[in-house]
């Protein structure tokens, strides 16, 4: 088996008297697409904030390619690509200018940056849109630009934080497929957080988070077998305490 790209052990995060994450353990290996399902308030956003270094855990550890997020954050973060739930593009700049800003932050030489931008936009079907202002793009295409941006520095781990919120079904399907292709063809490890069960059909593993605890970690057939459910949506409702 390939080495773990992401290792999370005993992760705890509290906000006052509220425990948002309560001893979470998980591991993702190269080439895996792992879907993190959880209802609103399950702790998905808190986990993403810890994984991206925005917050610090009260207990536990996060390692990316062996680099500890607490003691070696720059090295850990250098291997991350992130598409956040909220759009994070300058609408008035062109697609290319937005991406060049990202490559400049990572110190990529301009010829290499332009080459990777052209390659990334072609991969998401936007090769002809580099000069267009982001404002002129649809919501789905803006997300594709953000995915291309997240991969410009060649991260080994891709975090997708409920990235399909507000997108139409076709755009959601295209974005999901683009991430699956990155995993299958380039060995990227991906963690896809969502509360939409239909988005995880192609995932190698499914994690179910509920009230800060990981209730399930395994593939879809194992999830159905454990719950006795006929479909993943019913299984998810059972594991997250929403079944009626």
TrEMBL record:
A Pfam short name: ABC_tran
SUPFAM superfamilies per record: P-loop containing nucleoside triphosphate hydrolases
GO molecular function, one term: ATP hydrolysis activity
Keyword Cell cycle: no
InterPro entries: AAA+_ATPase, ABC_transporter-like_ATP-bd, ABC_transporter-like_CS, ABC_transporter_ATP-binding, ABC_transprt_ATP-bd_su_PQQ, P-loop_NTPase
Family: Belongs to the ABC transporter superfamily.
SMART domains associated with the record: AAA
Keywords: ATP-binding, Cell membrane, Membrane, Nodulation, Nucleotide-binding, Transport
Ranges of residues in domain ABC transporter: 6-236
Highest taxon of the lineage: Bacteria
Name by which UniProt lists this protein: ABC transporter ATP-binding protein
């Amino acid at each position: 088996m390939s080495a773990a790209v992401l290792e999370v052990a005993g992760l705890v995060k509290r906000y006052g008297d509220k425990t948002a994450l309560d001893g979470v353990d998980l591991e993702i290996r190269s080439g895996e697409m792992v879907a993190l399902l959880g209802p609103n308030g399950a702790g998905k956003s808190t986990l993403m904030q810890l994984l991206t270094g925005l917050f610090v855990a009260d207990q536990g550890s996060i390692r990316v390619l062996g680099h500890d997020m607490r003691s070696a954050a720059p090295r850990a973060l250098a291997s991350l690509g992130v598409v956040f739930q909220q759009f994070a593009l300058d609408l008035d700049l062109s697609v290319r200018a937005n991406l060049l800003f990202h490559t400049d932050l990572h110190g990529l030489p301009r010829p290499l940056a332009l080459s990777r931008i052209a390659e990334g936009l072609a991969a998401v079907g936007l090769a002809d849109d580099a000069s267009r202002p982001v404002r002129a793009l649809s919501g789905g295409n803006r997300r594709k630009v953000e995915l291309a941006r997240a991969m410009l520095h060649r991260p080994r781990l891709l975090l997708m934080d409920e990235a399909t919120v507000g997108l139409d079904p076709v755009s959601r399907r295209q974005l999901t497929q683009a991430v699956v292709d990155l995993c299958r063809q380039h060995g990227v490890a991906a963690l896809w957080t969502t509360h939409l069960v239909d988005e995880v059909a192609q995932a190698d593993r499914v994690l179910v988070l509920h009230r800060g605890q990981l209730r399930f970690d395994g593939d879809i057939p194992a999830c159905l077998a454990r719950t006795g459910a006929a479909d993943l949506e019913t299984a998810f409702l059972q594991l997250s305490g929403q079944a009626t």
